[in-house]
Specification:
alpha+beta; OB fold (Dihydrolipoamide Acetyltransferase, E2P); 2 domains; 7-stranded mixed beta sheet; 18 strands
Length: 379
């Protein structure tokens, strides 16, 4: 089941949950067999062996549970560390599983035993999921499994929207209390953080090999040392916009016969290790998701400025693809610095996972949390 984007949380008979920033995954458990599958039904178990072993010990022998695989780092959820787990070498996967163990956050249950719970209203599925996690024993450290917080109080959800962003959460999801599980349907509502900033457009890619259509704009920001860092892309355009967008950037290409040796990203194509050594993802590097995908790009003179909407910054890069808002011919490229980006104040991820109240004899790894039976904080 998917969610449609909204600008504000709906009011009414809803349950609200934090929106996790990880890999959507459904757990299929049947006896001693357990499989993790992505939203597109691709197998994930081989990439997260520590979760497979953990969930075999925690979950009922026959169940289907919907949730998110995340990696918690010292500054909150770490999507880069999570993405690094999709590696073909089992030895590296096992090494990363020990260095940065994953966690599973459950937020729905589709089946228990022989019962198909998908037709049941979400309020009943949530109660069934709470009962499953009521029997989950404490887990010390990582990996770990958690029941996502949930609340019926819209004001509490609004507080989560602001307070949990620093832990790397993307926003809040709202589900109608009477909502059946509708696979493939955008039946939920999600509200995500969005901000705007100005970026330097220093390169572009063609659209699926079509030399007359723009695929994406390469965005840059100047760091404190005066280097233009590649921070992300704008890649979502209507089909009828792509030719016009290509014409808009064409004027910033080098004249025939003129080189771009002074372009700040010029050496990346020939010396990718240099950019990687500074912790930057290279525009021409291979795609982790598709090894055959061409990520080569056409450099532009770094003179064009665009205003774009973005969700949040992770490290020195935009976490998601930015959205085009307008050209900014009034802005100087040198004014496009990291300083203009709003950075969320980090909070301890344990606050999101939920720690039990003092005196209950339950440590921070405990899966039952102080959110109470309906996910609301207990006093």
């Amino acid at each position: 089941m998917l969610a449609k984007l909204a600008r504000e949380l709906p009011d009414g008979d809803y349950l609200y949950e934090p929106k996790w920033d990880g890999f959507r995954a459904i757990v299929f458990r049947s006896g001693e067999e357990l499989e993790l599958a992505s939203r597109n039904e691709l197998p994930l178990a081989r990439y997260f062996p520590e979760l497979v072993e953990l969930l075999k010990t925690l979950l009922p022998r026959d169940c289907v549970i919907d949730g998110e695989v995340v990696v918690a780092g010292p500054r909150g959820l770490d999507f880069e560390a999570l993405s690094a787990r999709l590696h073909p070498a089992a030895s590296r996967v096992n090494m990363l599983a020990k260095a940065a163990p994953a966690s599973f956050v459950a937020f729905d249950v589709l089946a228990l035993g022989n019962l198909d719970l998908r037709p049941e209203p979400f309020r009943q599925r949530r109660r069934a999921l709470e009962e499953v996690f009521a029997d989950v024993p404490a887990s010390a450290g990582q990996p770990s499994a958690h029941l996502t917080p949930a609340t019926r109080d819209r004001a509490v959800a609004q507080d989560w929207f602001a307070r949990f962003e620093g832990a790397g959460l993307e926003g809040v999801v709202a589900k109608r209390a009477d909502l059946a599980y509708q696979a493939g349907k955008r039946a939920m509502v999600k509200v995500k953080h969005e901000r705007t900033a100005e970026f330097v457009v220093a390169g572009f890619r063609y659209y699926q090999g079509a030399r007359d259509m723009l695929g994406s704009l390469m965005l840059g920001l100047y760091d404190p040392q005066g280097r233009l860092a590649h921070v992300g892309v704008i890649g979502s355009f209507r089909a009828d916009e792509r030719k016009a967008m290509l014409e808009a950037v064409a004027a910033y290409r080098a004249a025939p016969g003129a080189g771009l040796e002074e372009h700040p990203w010029a050496r990346w194509a020939t010396a990718p290790a240099e950019g990687a050594s500074r912790g930057q993802r290279l525009p021409g590097a291979y795609s982790r998701w598709n090894a055959n995908k061409d990520l080569s790009f056409e450099p532009l003179r770094p003179e064009l400025v665009v205003e774009a909407a973005y969700e949040h910054l992770q490290g020195d890069r935009l976490r998601h693809t930015a959205q085009f808002r307008r050209w900014r011919p009034d802005r100087s490229p040198r004014s496009c610095t990291y300083d203009q980006l709003e950075v969320a104040v980090p909070v301890e991820l344990a606050t999101v996972f939920g720690q039990t109240a003092p005196g209950r004899g339950e440590g921070p790894g405990r899966s039952r949390s102080s959110w109470g039976p309906t996910g609301e904080e207990e006093s």
